[in-house]
Amino acid sequence: MCDVIQSWTQERRGPRPGRADTRVAVLDAAREVFVEHGYDGATVRAIAARANVDAAMVNHWFGNKESLFAEAVLDVPFDLDGLVTRLLDGAVGGLGERIVRTVLTN
To answer: Could you tell me the domains of the chain?
Structure first.
């Protein structure tokens, strides 16, 4: 029975105790899986397996596949959703001006 418990604990996935680089491992795994399978073919489970963590941890850190993709592949250094919301807030005729103002002031 002790061998079964030891085997289970060695194969256990989830957060790596005391390892700050687990999040980086997930990002690296996500880049690899997205490149290999494309966005539609990549799954959170496949990314988690590649990073040797539980899929729940991926969702805990990144929320969903879309957010993980944005951080891992696009590496957007700002709030993309907020930017799009600000740009689309107003008449279509003023969109160009809002884009220019946003680019010049950020």
So the answer is: 2-75 (1.10.10.60), 76-106 (no CATH)
User: Distances in Å between the alpha carbon of 34 and those of 2, 40, 44, 81, 88?
Assistant: 39, 8, 10, 21, 29
What does the pLDDT profile of the chain (106 residues) look like in tens digits? 555 555 555 555 555 454 558 889 999 999 999 999 999 999 999 999 999 999 998 988 898 999 899 888 776 667 777 888 889 999 999 999 998 988 888 6
CA separation, residue 6 to residues 11, 15, 55 (Å): 9, 18, 22
List of long-range contacts for 34-38, beta carbons under 8 Å, 24+ apart? 34/69, 34/72, 34/73
d(CA 101, CA 106): 8
